[in-house]
Amino acid sequence: MRITRSVAGRRLRAGYVATTGLTVTALLLTGCGGSSDSDKGADADGNITLTVADFGQFGYKEAGLFEKYHELNPKITVKEDTTAEEKNYYPKLLQQLNSGSGLADVQGIEVGRIKEIVDTKADSFADLSKAIGVDEWVSWKAKQATAPDGAVIGAGTDIGPMSLCYNRELFEKAGLPTDRAEVAKLTEGGWEDFLALGEQYKKKAPEGTYFMDSASAMFNAVVSSSPEQYYDASGKPIYEKSASVEKGWKLAAEAASKKLTQGLAQFEDQWQAALRKSTVATVVCPAWMAGQISTYAGDANKGKWDITSAPGNTSANWGGSFLAVPKSGKNVAEATKLVKWLTAPEQQAAVFKAIGVFPSNQGAYDLPDVKNATLPYFNDAPIGQIYADGAKSIPEAVLGPKDGVIKDSISTQINNMEQRGTSPDDAWDAAVRTIDKAIG
Q: pTM value?
């Protein structure tokens, strides 16, 4: 499992997000003008079809944004080409970039890939720095897509500020507080407090249940709450000496040894069944994870779950993507206008309302559909407030070109500690061998 949001996290909406509702007027206010003379893809009547290639679920269809854009710009039709799995999408994107053909007018890029694209393919994309209003984004989001020469090759779509989802019913049966403020206070010291809470849970835990689903998820949250992760600023891999990796590994090993985790691979069938059967009491919860829980736990568990802030005084980011415009496209100017519109505050708020992915554009945070958002499935948790507060405390982290490989390899070995009883030393050695072989 990678720390960047898996496609499974994109596929499912976060249940019904209760908000005040965006008005049609708000959407109309940010419409764009007609086609540009610089675009070469128009037909004889000036009509242009823009193609958007992405993966999983970006939420534009669910929010009706492509249809709305056509209403605002009658000569522009937007068609979406979606690949179900990002792991299949990305190799195809690289192949298209290398060959210089087959690219869409707009391409989605996952956060776990953006560093590699910035380092190796930045020249293939239009500079959006003058088009999208970089200052509107959370600062670290914009920097992730910024090349050394200052070019911004991707406009931020969403982010994954961290929270903690917990099963209120299981907490009550284990004699733990169920109020989200009280739960937050019990873990305010950080992930060490979280494990201590797990030990309290274990003392009176309902038979057949576990405190957490996956220690690898906790590891990812620990690492991503630190500015120092897998690479240093020069691009050198430092995962073997990284303080956050060491801390996350130690906590994961402790959770495995104390049997606080069910040791499930997230998003797989057994994990889905555990949610349905209520055998896990907590899930590390980036904003998009609520959709996973509500979908797989099902209607029978509505109201049994809640959401509170992540342990500690700093949040973490897990997931998020970008929209980029290939320079080779026939409709670069119009594609840039579309990207600007799709990532404006009103449209990001509409996507949040539709599928629950949280905006990267800070201008959306004060809009009613974000600020006042609650999630009925999760006991009316005030997710707009929780996620916005989390977004403000996310540190600016250094990304590396092979972050995904490193995270996947470490997560696999954490699962081995949980499921097979592999010793921490042997598991770590196996992770290092795999990583070093993969990154050279």
A: 0.85
